[in-house]
Design goal:
mainly beta, 4-stranded mixed sheet, 16 strands, about 0% helix, hydrolase, protease, Ig-like_fold
Length: about 190
């Protein structure tokens, strides 16, 4: 759950999640109430609920934060639904963070394409991901070029059949203010 950037001293955010029963039997669901703290409190759906096979239900998760009492400017953790971890994250106005985080590549066993994802912290004018050879630094290929991407998880797939080995992914973010932000991540493609 992405609660975003908090800018007020006391702020409440609501995130909606969809729970889907993908099994062929009815399933019971319930949240484990996290330890309540002075700086952050969650209000979760209190009752246990049952979903019929293939049914979905939208739920509301409320979070109240007192940013003045936080000991960290970036806070992340997990809420648990039937012991399944649901990650959450938010940051405060004072947090010094990169424009994007967590570029990952994984090979899909179904279609031999690489699945990628990264987290974009703020809206941008343009997002580009290029691959360079880790030894020679020569340009290999463009993985992604998005105009006006929104914040949150950016994901997709790309065919990289001939590019096995070690690479450097260069992530370039162009902001509305014409500032650019570049960072590099080592990538190993199998």
């Amino acid at each position: 759950m992405q609660f975003g950037k908090l800018e007020k001293i006391n702020e409440q955010r609501i995130e909606r999640i969809v729970v889907e029963n993908i099994s062929d039997r009815a399933q019971k669901y319930s949240f484990s109430l996290p330890k309540q703290q002075q700086d952050i409190r969650f209000q979760l759906p209190p009752q246990t609920f049952t979903l019929a096979p293939k049914a979905k239900k939208e739920l509301e998760v409320k979070m109240t934060v007192r940013t003045s009492q936080l000991d960290q400017n970036i806070k992340q953790g997990y809420l648990y639904l039937n012991n399944i971890p649901l990650p959450y994250m938010f940051l405060t106005e004072t947090a010094e963070i990169p424009e994007a985080m967590g570029l990952e590549f994984t090979l899909s066993p179904i279609d031999s394409a690489y699945q990628y994802q990264l987290y974009l912290v703020e809206n941008a004018k343009k997002l580009t991901i290029d691959l360079y050879d880790a030894t020679t630094f020569a340009f290999v290929t463009n993985v992604l070029e998005l105009k006006e991407p929104s914040t949150g998880v950016i994901e997709g797939s790309v065919e990289l059949n001939e590019q096995k080995g070690e690479y450097i992914a260069n992530i370039k973010i162009e902001k509305e203010s014409d500032e650019t932000y570049d960072y590099q991540v080592p990538i190993w493609l199998e």
